[in-house]
Structure formats: structure tokens, C-alpha cells
Amino acid sequence: MIIKSNASPQETSSPFFKANEEFCNHFEHFIANKNGKVKGVFNASSYLIFGEVAHPKLWTLGYKKATFTSTGNLFLSSNYESLLVAAEWKTKYVSREANDFKIRKQTTTDGIKMLFNTKLKKVEHYPKYIVEYKNGLPSLYHKILTSLESLFSSKELYEVNMKNEELSIELRSDKHHFEVFDRLIEEI
């Protein structure tokens, strides 16, 4: 396995270590099947793994899991407060119409902002998400909505950012979502 363990010998029998090892192994096989490169480390409480795939654009995939110590907040669940699972998919996207835009989850103040900002609106069919744009929405925006439909529905999509000819897609999920990634790279 190219992705290496940085766990202590006591951690290797932990079910959390085995789950993270399986996650990393699955990631490594997916990238290898696409003739890509992979690197990273994992242990019982975290992983940080990266892969590169060229199909036909070069895509960089990163997955991160981090477990933090609790701050003792009475209002938040310690599971919610102390665990971060994230993924980021990036590529260069050069197009004549590639206007900058950002899709993100709606915040409490967005309702007021939408009254005054015509370049901020709810994402069609997904009212929990907002799109910010400057010069109109390119066809890429509609391809993103179609390709990432399941992530919008499950609310695992955190942010899509198209800026300076770089497309970045962030997830908050403990799943790989390789089937969504495959659909995305075929449609874009």
C-alpha cells in the first residue's frame, strides 16, 4: 500500500484504524484503476490522502478526517464538535464562458442579502443552497447541478467554487462518492 500508516503499534488493532485503513485502501485502488498517483498517511483517528487523475483534465482529489478533543460545549454534541470529514476535488477549467461563481449552503443572513444583491440567489431545486455570481451563470453551472445532484440532495456538498479558471468542489462526508466523481468528470 502506497498510503502509509503513521499509527502507534497499539492503534493497529483498533476498529477505527481498520476502518480508516479500508477507506484509504479503497481510495488507492480507485486512483490506481485510473492510472493516477496517490500519497498520504492514516492512523486510528485520522487520515490525509491525496490523489491525481488525468481524465482528460488533471483532477486532484483530497480526503481528510480529523478528530479533535472536545471543548466541553454544552450546546453541541461532542461528535459534531470534534470530528471533521472532508473531501476536495479540484481541476483547472479553461473556457471562454467560465465566469466565476460559488455555490454554498445558505446562512441565516442570506435572506436579507438576497433582497439587496441581485447576484445572489437560491439554487433551483435545492433551497438550502445559494449561488453567488458576477457576470451570469455559465453552462458549467448547470452541468454541476446535474452531476452533483445526489450530493445536493444528501446535503453532503459543502461548496462549489469556480474562480480564476479553477474549479473546486468541497464535500463534508465520510464517503468516497467515486460514482459521483466519475459522472462529474464525464460531463464536464
Summarize the structure in words.
- The chain has 6 helices and 10 strands, in the order βαβββαββαββααββα.
- With 188 residues, the protein is α+β, with helices and mostly antiparallel strands.
- It has 2 domains: 1-91, no CATH class; 93-188, no CATH class.
- The protein has a 10-stranded mixed sheet with strand order 1-2-3-4-5-10-9-6-8-7, sandwiched between helices.
- A hairpin with a 2-residue loop joins strand 7 (120-123) and strand 8 (126-133).
- The longest helix has 19 residues, at 15-33.
Along the chain, the helix and strand elements come as EHEEEHEEHEEHHEEH
Rounded to an integer in angstroms, the radius of gyration calculated over CA atoms is 18 Å
What's the N-to-C terminus distance? 31 Å
Overall geometry comes to globular
Tally the beta strands: 10
Give the number of domains. 2
Biggest sheet record: 10 strands, mixed
Mean pLDDT level: 91
Please report the number of helical segments: 6
Query: Could you list the spans in which at least 5 consecutive residues all have pLDDT below 50?
Result: none
Helix content: 25-40%
The proportion of residues in beta strands is 35-45%
Strand order of the largest sheet: 1-2-3-4-5-10-9-6-8-7
What structural category characterises the helix and strand content? alpha+beta
